Amino acid sequence: MTDLHYLHDPLCGWCYGAAPLLEAARDVADLRIVLHGGGLFVGASRQQLGESLRRHILEHDQRIAALTGQPFGEDYREKLLNDATAVLDSAPPLAAVLAADALAGRGLDMLHTLQVAHYQQGRHIARHEVLQGLAEDLGLPPAGFAAELQHQLTTRLEAHMADSRQLLARLGGNGYPTLALERDGRFERVEIGRFLGRPEAFRRWLGERDPDAVHSVGEVFCDPSAPGNC
Questions:
Q1: CATH assignment at residue 191
Q2: pLDDT tens, 56-100?
Q3: What is the count of structural domains for the chain?
Q4: Partner residues linked to 87 by β-bridges
Q5: CA-based angle 55:195:60, to the nearest 5?
Q6: Which domain holds residue 99?
Q7: What letter would DSSP give residue 34?
Q8: Taking a C-beta distance cutoff of 8 angstroms, is the pair 98, 145 a contact?
Q9: Quick one: which of 35, 47, 141 has its CA closest to 88?
């Protein structure tokens, strides 16, 4: 068994751009995907949407769409990004991913559901009522999810994010998304940029484990030190 470690954030636009790669990876035999949420917009890095940030986000979204083909919905562009009450807060959606994983091993399903809800449907994925609805859409038990979400937020999330950041530093990564293969305790960082927009090529490469696509150099997508640049 080989592990594909995925360092991500639900509010990272480049992670949304990379989502088809993770979907492709699910079809690869003897490959386990391990999620590590870093927390772009947490604590003092939480940001309320305003005109300057909106313009900045839209510029990056255009690059992501052009490179990856991922769609950005009208409700996201015209409603969510124009909502001055919207706050970019990674903690609740990250806790939702952890809760879905703990309850049913469906962390990646929750992550993709969150990305669609945010980037296509323009929904406020930092709000608990939205997270609860998304969990029910996935078939997770409402009461169980609510309790697990609260547990993750209050007990597990900080340690999880700290561990994720330590792994990012160990890998020599600069931001999200970062992918690494682990085989026999040895980590190799994947050059993700060459595969963006090419999920079938990524699936084939994972099946072959081509060593030429590891040890990326200089890739920076969503930088944790400047989350507004995502």
A1: 3.40.30.10
A2: 999 999 999 999 999 999 999 999 999 999 999 999 999 999 999
A3: 1
A4: 48
A5: 5
A6: 2-229
A7: E
A8: no
A9: 47
